[in-house]
Design brief:
With 452 residues, this protein is mainly alpha-helical. 59% of the residues lie in helices and 6% in strands. It has three domains: 13-71, no CATH class; 89-352, Fic-like fold, CATH 1.10.3290.10; 374-451, Arc Repressor Mutant, subunit A. The protein has 21 helices and six strands. Strands 1-2 form a two-stranded antiparallel ribbon. Strands 3-4 form a two-stranded antiparallel sheet. A two-stranded antiparallel sheet has the order 5-6. Strand 5 and strand 6 (435-440) form a beta hairpin. Helix 15 crosses helix 17 (335-373). The radius of gyration is 26 Å and the shape is globular.
């Protein structure tokens, strides 16, 4: 639970201060800003603990709200009765917009591929990163499967054995669906389809795949079982989602548009509204995050296919949940939610860039050793790709099936690639069930076997 802000604010706080505490006027004036001295957009839940003890909480909060109200922008109306949502462009949000524009467009992704030289190696890396969002989004919703087991499940295309594994496969399918349908407009049909794609056959009686809820017995609870959010009524839900779709489909990022909103702002707002409306009996968080990605894909930010936001959300689920509550308890000020999501986006982009840099560095170092040792001439192109991926640590186990999928070659070719690496004393293989699983030997063993 969070400490809700005072419901009644002081209309003229500075007049009150001038009349009752003129000696504190300068201290109060320092609060007259949407953000604190560190650029943070604090909710009352946090603000009250950072306030100097000699200042009145209600007066201080009234001053902060006065500064914010002058700069808040209307973005969308949600729920029933309709509530106006607003936001303020914080320093964190501005930084996220800049990072997104500079590092995640389709053009920047193409540049990375050309820069690294080993394009197939980068593609293998990226295909692996696609799985991270599906896995972490499921874990965020409570899936207990470990990341290692989940990776194995997706790479080997193994049939899921439990509801948790079904959730992960469903999320993976949902992300693929978002990518494949990125050129479509948002519609009731698209939202229902993405839900069905993600949750079908997990627990159909509970999820009712591809169907909006028709009752008002759905609520959001925290880890202690306390109700933290009661969604708007099911009555009128379809109409409200249609209005949301109309807003999403309108282009707000045209430079001549007076109501300009960056695509990242709209994607995060779409994420929020789906979570707030809670249109399904279950699976709303997964749908909300998938639609965030869908909108970024739609607007040509292709690198987001490989940027796993949920990995970071999973590491701090309480903050994620609070960002919803902060917005809802402060008159639908979406700044809290948008600002938090942007802070996550900044870190996720940074990790994506770091993965690319490490891949580039590892490839260069390995290629040098490969050439100097003479081993380079013994490897064909596909073997180089698989070996470099293994060395980078992106993937630890390989099968002929996942090599076939990642390299786009025939099954027999993939099998020959892996068996060739075993013959060169670079890989080892072991039987798991009916399938051979390959993994790279340690660098020490490779060097020792090569020298001998």
């Amino acid at each position: 639970m969070v400490n809700k802000p005072p419901q009644e604010l002081i209309k003229n706080p500075f007049q009150l201060i001038a009349e009752k505490e003129p000696n504190k006027l300068e201290d109060y004036l320092e609060l007259f800003s949407p953000v604190d001295t560190k650029g943070r957009y604090l909710h009352f839940d946090d603000f009250k603990y950072r306030l100097p003890k000699n200042l009145d909480q209600k007066v201080s909060w009234s001053i902060v709200k006065l500064a914010r109200d002058r700069q808040l922008r209307h973005i969308i109306s949600v729920g029933f009765p309709s509530k106006n949502c607003k936001f303020y462009l914080t320093p964190t949000i501005q930084k996220a917009l800049s990072e997104t524009d500079r590092n995640t467009t389709s053009a920047s992704l193409e540049w990375m591929c050309s820069k690294i030289g080993e394009e197939k190696h980068l593609e293998y890396l990226l295909n692996d990163l696609v799985e991270d969002e599906a896995i972490s989004s499921s874990q965020l919703e409570g899936a207990a499967t470990t990341t290692k087991v989940a990776k194995d499940l997706l790479k080997r295309k193994r049939k899921p054995r439990s509801p948790d594994e079904k959730m992960i496969v469903g999320n993976f399918k949902m992300m693929k669906f978002a990518w494949d349908n990125r050129h479509r407009d948002l519609s009731i049909d698209l939202i229902l389809s993405i839900h069905q794609e993600g949750v079908e056959n997990i627990d159909n009686d509970n999820y009712t795949p591809g169907v909006f809820r028709v009752t008002n017995d759905v609520e959001v609870v925290d880890s202690e079982g306390m109700t933290v959010h009661i969604p708007p009524p099911a009555e009128g839900l379809t109409k409200r989602i249609k209005e949301l779709s109309k807003w999403v489909n309108e282009c707000h990022h045209d430079v001549d548009n007076k109501e300009y909103f960056h695509p990242l702002i709209k994607a995060i707002t779409l994420h929020f509204v789906i979570g707030y409306e809670h249109p399904f009996r279950d699976g709303n968080g997964r749908v909300a995050r998938a639609l965030f990605y869908w909108y970024m894909f739609k607007n040509d930010f292709a690198a987001f296919r490989y940027i796993a936001i949920s990995v970071l959300l999973k590491s701090a689920p309480i903050k994620y949940g609070k960002s919803y509550l902060y917005s809802e308890t402060d008159n639908m000020d979406l700044t809290y939610f948008i600002d938090y999501q942007c802070s996550v986006v900044i870190r996720a982009i940074s990790q994506f860039k770091e993965s690319y840099k490490n891949t580039l560095k590892d490839a260069e170092t390995f290629n040098k050793w490969l050439w100097e040792s003479g081993l380079y001439r013994k490897l064909n192109d596909k073997q180089q790709t698989v070996f470099q991926v293994a060395r980078s640590g992106v993937a630890h186990q390989f099968t002929a099936m996942n090599v076939k999928e990642n390299l786009g070659c025939a099954y027999n070719t993939a099998s020959n690639v892996l068996n060739g690496l075993v013959e060169l004393n670079l890989f080892k293989k072991e039987k798991q069930g009916r399938e051979w699983v390959y993994s790279m030997l340690s660098q020490k063993k490779i060097i020792e076997s090569w020298k001998s």
